[in-house]
Each structure stands twice: as structure tokens, then as C-alpha cells.
Amino acid sequence: MDKLTVVHANDLVEASYALSINEMRVIALACTKIDSRKKSGDEITISVKEFAKAYGIENKRIYGDLRDSVSGIMRKPVKRYDYKKKRMVELAWLVKNDYELSEDGSYVILQFSPLISPYLFDLKERFTQINFKYVAKLNTPFSFRLYQWLKKVENMHNAKENNAISIILDVSWMKTQSQLLGKYERWGDFKDYVINPAINKINTETDLSVIWNPIKKGRSVHAVKFSYVVEAATFAKPIRPRLYRRPKVLKGSHEEGEWMRKNLSLLLSYRDELKKYDAFEKLDIKDLERIAEYSSIFDREIHESALKEISERRAKKTKVAS
């Protein structure tokens, strides 16, 4: 797994397409099975077993998800704008999808379209190569795309800035290429629900440590500057501690108070470790509720702060759902 790579021509990295997370996973895994130095490719077989192992998936519908993902890719073209001819060109990812109709199949067979082949095969220059073990851990379509955009400039001399690699991406361009136009129209929503989760996942699971800053034009954010370094090894995310089990004592007793105090200390220490690891990491909302409960009799400031954060996060969740 460590040696598998995904290689795309830069034009494909920069193209516009809208695939689900599982559809992107199919494309990535299929690309590990081809030789980008050859002129064309043959049929590719992806088994349920290797798909599940590659992405750590455990559910009873793996074959159905795999089959449906390949079918979805068949219906979703890659869009490239031809600046010379001023025309939009749509290219099919696949020319073939072969699968069993039953729900207990063990593999699917697919074949890349000849129209997309120039962006996958016979690549000698202007291509981006990424390590499959990192993209296999990304869990949103946008995190896949952003990781590729960042890696594309890794070896470009004009992207070097001090000891980091930097790239400025226009917000409208990012939305267009990931086909998010019309969604997350407020900058705050795009930041909170698209960029932050992607950066958190990239920082946690890949070889890149990324920071970013919005670039304003007037009062509006029109672009984002991403800067990163390639880490030799990634740091492990802090593990949530196991809380003490509630003792069989009377409610309001001294023993209950000591139990609450111990668990409060564990959760607050865990929260601090998360913040040191990644400033954007947050506790699970149920743990926030525990902090609010435990601190209610020990620390009014912590109690009120926890209640405020719970209220704000639930309000955002309701807003997104609506």
C-alpha cells in the first residue's frame, strides 16, 4: 500500500468534476492499477475485498456501494474549458462498466475512456503524482481535490516561499472545479463546512502540514493562500481518554462529586491536547455536554463556555440541515 501511487496529468488535476467520495475512491484505486508511462490501458478489476481493505470500509453493502459508484462515474463527465477555442469540453471517465446484478457480487470491471486516456497514460511531463496511502484516508471529495492541488505545485520553483510551499487559489475557481457553485455562498459557510474539514483531514492523515489565510478584495474574501511543508512523518492524533465509570453512590454525594471532577479533568486535558495538535479540532458534542454537566458545580466559567459552544454548534447543524 505504501508504494502505490495515483498519477494524473495536471490538466486533469485542474479540471472540473463532481464525484462522490466513493466515486473518487474508485478512480484513485483504479489509477494505482495502471502504468502512466504506457500509451493506453486495459480493463481494470476491483474486488470488494481490496476496496474494503484500501479504505477501511466495514459494512454489508460494500459490493452495492462499489457497483453504484462505478455506475455514477459513468454519468458524470470531466469538464475542461478550452481557452483557445473558448468552448467547454466534456469527457467521459469510463467506457465500460461490467458488474453482477446480484447484491453479493465480488468484483467490478471498468475501463477508462479513450478520451480521458491522454490525462492518465503516456505521461512524460506536467503531471501530479500522489501517494495512495494518504488519499485513501481522505473522507470528502473536496479534501481529495485540495490535496491534489497542493501537491501539484510541490516541485515548482516559483511556489517555494522561505521553507514552505505556497499557492493562492481563487474561491470561485475552487467551487467551479469541485462543482460547488451555488452552494456555501457565504464565505463563513464555505470556510466552516468545506475548507476547515478538508485542511483538518489533510493535516491529520497525510504528509502535508498546511496553514491557510483568506485574501480579501474589499470586504469580501476572493482567494485563499495555502502554505505547507512536507512532513517526514505525521504526528498521531491524541486519543480520547476512557472516562471513569460512575460509582454506585447517592446523587449529590461527595463520592459523585469526586467522580465528576476526575472526568472533567480528563476531558479538559484531552481538549487541550487536541488544540495543540490542531487548532481547528473540536470535542465531540456529547463530551461537551459532559463538560457542561461536570463543571456545573465546580467552575461556572467553564460551564457557561461549554453551554455556549453547544448552542452555537447545534444552531450551525440545524442551519446546514435546512
Based on Cα principal axes, name the global outline: globular
Largest sheet: 4 strands, antiparallel
Q: Mean pLDDT across all residues, rounded?
A: 90
Low-confidence parts lasting 5 or more residues at pLDDT below 50?
none
Which class do the helix and strand fractions yield?
alpha+beta
Strand order of the largest sheet: 8-9-11-10
Strand content: 15-25%
Task: Evaluate the radius of gyration.
Answer: 23 Å
Order of helices and strands: EHHEHHEEEEEHHEEHHEEHHH
Strand segment tally: 11
Helix content percent band: 40-55%
N-C termini distance: 40 Å
> What count of helical segments does DSSP give?
11
Oligomeric state of the chains? Answer: single chain
Q: How is this structure best described in words?
A:
- With 322 residues, the protein is α+β, with helices and mostly antiparallel strands.
- Helix content is 42%, strand content 20%.
- It has 11 helices and 11 strands.
- It has helices spanning 10-13, 21-31, 48-55, 62-74, 132-135, 141-152, 171-177, 187-205, 254-277, 285-295, 300-321, and strands at 5-9, 44-47, 78-82, 87-91, 94-98, 107-112, 127-131, 160-161, 164-170, 208-217, 220-230.
- The strands form 4 sheets. Strands 8-9-11-10 form a 4-stranded antiparallel β-sheet. Strands 2-6-5 form a 3-stranded antiparallel β-sheet.
- Strand 10 and strand 11 form a beta hairpin.
- Helix 9 crosses helix 10.
- The longest helix has 24 residues, at 254-277.
- The radius of gyration is 23 Å and the shape is globular.
